[in-house]
Structures are given as C-alpha cells and as structure tokens.
Amino acid sequence: MSDIYAERGYGDRPVGFGTKIGVVVVDFQRGFVGADFPMGGAPMVDQAVRNTVPVIAAAKRAGLPVIACVNGYDSPRAAPHWKVGAVFDLLRGSASVELDPRIAAAAPDVTLMKSAPSIFFATSAAAILNKERVDTVIVTGCITSGCVRASVIDAFSLGFRVMVPHDCVGDHDAAAHAQNLKDVERRYADVIDAASAIEAIEQWRRSNDKP
After folding, report:
1. How buried is residue 186: exposed, middle or buried, by Cβ count under 10 Å (0-12/13-18/19+)?
2. Which candidate among 37, 139, 182, 204 keeps its CA 20 to 30 Å from the CA of 210?
3. Please, are residues 22 and 140 in contact by the beta-carbon 8 Å criterion?
4. CB-based burial of residue 75 (10 Å sphere; 0-12 exposed, 13-18 middle, 19+ buried)?
5. Within a 13 Å sphere around the CA of 35, how many CA atoms are in the beta-carbon half?
6. What is the SS3 assignment for the chain?
7. Does the pTM exceed 0.90?
8. Residues 183-205: pLDDT tens digits?
9. Interatomic CA distance for residues 194 and 84, integer angstroms
10. pLDDT tens sequence across 92-132
11. How far is the C-alpha of 164 from the C-alpha of 199, rounded, in Å?
C-alpha cells in the first residue's frame, strides 16, 4: 500500500539528538492514570508510566532536567471550554491533580500546573529548558492524541528537537495512539523507544564526564 505522505516528502529526514537533552512528563497524574478516576484506568497509559520511570532515573543520574506537569484549575471557571466533563473536576488540591505515585517517587526537578493541553502553553517549561541550554526534548506522558501531541507541536514550534518514545506515551485507544504517533513522526519528531532514550541520555552522561 502506497504512503501518499512519504511520496510527497513527509518524514524523509530524521530530527536526531542535539547537544543536550531534557525530559518532559505530561499529565501522568492520578486523574488520568488511576482506575478510580473517570479518565483513568487505560492499560496503555499505565504501561507508559512504568516505562517513563527509568527514563527519568537516567536523566537524573546524568544531571539533565526533568519537568513534569499536571492539568488542573483553581476553579471550574478557570478552565477553557473543554468538551470533556471530568476535566472540570481537576481542581487544585484534589487527589486527581497529584502526580502518579511512581512519577512522584522518581522526583522530577520541577512540577508545573498547566491549564491547556501543552506543557509549554503559559508555563515556564520552555524558559527552564532554555536556561539549562537544552536543545532536545524527550516527551513522555498522556494522552497521545491530546496533551502529548499538543506538547510535541509546541516543542517543535519553540525550536527544540523532539523525541517521543512510543512506549512512554499512552492513550485510551490503540488506533488513536498509533495514528497520532505516525502523524507527528511525519512532521515534527523522531519516534523512538524508552531503551533508545535511555541510551542517548547515558551517552550524554559519559561524554560529559558525569559519574
């Protein structure tokens, strides 16, 4: 079966890693992961959390920045016009906006609260990465078709090289997950896996004489 995008030049060159890596962890919070919440309980998301923990650990060993975020609001009035009713329950101070315990235990350097899909929209994430002289962002999180995709596009638009480990992002539906990964791979990012992300981080650590 022909690929009309490939025939027209989409995805014909890799992005590649640059000189310094940062990791962003998008919305691995209890309200999106835990089975006891309306938007949680997706097996693919739970697996993505498990695969992200060693990526965070590798970045921490290397002294590379790790920024996590949660989606939440001071009140329902502060939320945009979401079409997902349960989003309006993501209120500051509630259990739904706490990091998944496994991510919290991995100790990201910074945890931000965002009010829109992208970790970069109206937050300090880009400024922090720029201060650290990061030029390559590894994007992990959920949901692949929503907040992950938005974060990938914003990272690209801000001039970062973007890497997406396919096994560190998850969605409610396998088809939506695969389709969105394929689409961002055509345009904005290299799709890799957790093992490749960890190896790139380890290579950076060795080349920079980190113990």
Report:
1. middle
2. 139
3. no
4. exposed
5. 5
6. CCCHHHHCCCCCCCCCCCCCEEEEEECCEHHHHCCCCCCCCCHHHHHHHHHHHHHHHHHHHHCCCEEEEEECECCHHHCCCCCCHHHHHCECCCHHHCECHHHHHHCCCEEEEECCCCCCCCCCHHHHHHHCCCCEEEEEEECHHHHHHHHHHHHHHCCCEEEEEHHHEECCCHHHHHHHHHHHHHHCCEEECHHHHHHHHHHHHHHCCCC
7. yes
8. 999 999 999 999 999 999 999 99
9. 30
10. 999 999 999 999 999 999 999 999 999 999 999 999 999 99
11. 14
Supply 130's token pair.
Answer: 């720029």
- Give 135-179 as a 3 state SS string: CEEEEEEECHHHHHHHHHHHHHHCCCEEEEEHHHEECCCHHHHHH
Place of tokens 């009035």: 77
**For 164-183, b where at least 16 C-beta lie within 10 A, e where not — what string?**
bbbbbbbbbeeeebeebbeb
Tokens encoding 165: 């480990």
Vertex 68, ends 210 and 61: CA angle to 5°? 15
Single-letter amino acid, residue 192: I
